[in-house]
Structure formats: structure tokens, C-alpha cells
Design a protein that fits this description.
Length: about 140
């Protein structure tokens, strides 16, 4: 359980940081705004938590085959889009009736999903490498 909470916290932090960065980019460069609602910070945290919780779509107790992994990543990506677009519309983060606004949101979601995935997979690869090194050390000292 401790590992799952640490994993969730890591995802939440990465997602929140990326979302906050995207918000800063939009509100200072693309569509400058004098002020930002204080509610926006709570909204970002809430949506980031939901997105982080969605990572539990992946099984912990077993490895996935390639086909299952691709299917789960696709479902996860769609779920993230539903969460962000749904709550983003409700929170007035974008205008669903404006094509440019919708495309900007979809592009932002794709970029953040890619960044979070990159950091996650990179960390997993490092963890696996450490485990393999420790296993080799254990086997060397045992024989």
C-alpha cells in the first residue's frame, strides 16, 4: 500500500506541475490575463488528483502483455481527456464551442500526457535497473 501511495503522490505532483505550467503558458503568453481566479488553483489540484487516480487502471500484481498495455494506455488517454475536458468545461478553462479553444485543450492534454508518461517510464526503467543490479549483487555474494 505504501508503494501505491508513493506512486500516486509522484503522479499527482508531476501532473499538477505540468498543468500549472500549461496554465501559466496560456495566461501569460497565448491569452494574457490580468488576474486568475483563486479557484483555479483548487481546480487544478482536483483535476490532477483525478488524473493521478486514473493510473490505477494499470494492474499492480502482474505484468501486462504488449497488446494489453497498448489497450490500457489508450483507455487511460481517453479517460484523461474525459476528466480534463469535462471538468475544464465546467470550470471555464476553455470554450467548447470555439474550435481553437478545444484544439488547444486537446494539444495540451496530449503534451502533458506524453511528459508524464516519459517521466513515469523513465523512473520505472531506473527502478528496474536498480533491482537488477541488486539481484546480481545478491547472487554474486551468495555463490
Amino acid at each position: 500500500m505504501k508503494k501505491r501511495l508513493a506512486f500516486l503522490w509522484n503522479k499527482f505532483c508531476i501532473i499538477s506541475t505540468c498543468t500549472l505550467t500549461a496554465m501559466a503558458f496560456f495566461t501569460t503568453i497565448l491569452s494574457p490575463a490580468e488576474t486568475i481566479s483563486q479557484n483555479a488553483l483548487w481546480q487544478i489540484l482536483f483535476v490532477s488528483l483525478l488524473c493521478a487516480l486514473s493510473t490505477f487502471l494499470y494492474p499492480w500484481e502482474r505484468r501486462m502483455g504488449r497488446a494489453e498495455l497498448y489497450i490500457r494506455v489508450g483507455i487511460h488517454y481517453l479517460l484523461i481527456n474525459v476528466i480534463v475536458l469535462g471538468f475544464g468545461s465546467r470550470f471555464d478553462w476553455y470554450q467548447p464551442s470555439r474550435l481553437k479553444s478545444m484544439l488547444a485543450m486537446l494539444l495540451t492534454i496530449a503534451v502533458i500526457f506524453a511528459v508524464v508518461s516519459f517521466f513515469s517510464w523513465n523512473r520505472s526503467a531506473k527502478d528496474a535497473q536498480k533491482m537488477n543490479e541488486r539481484l546480481e549483487q545478491y547472487q554474486d555474494t551468495r555463490f
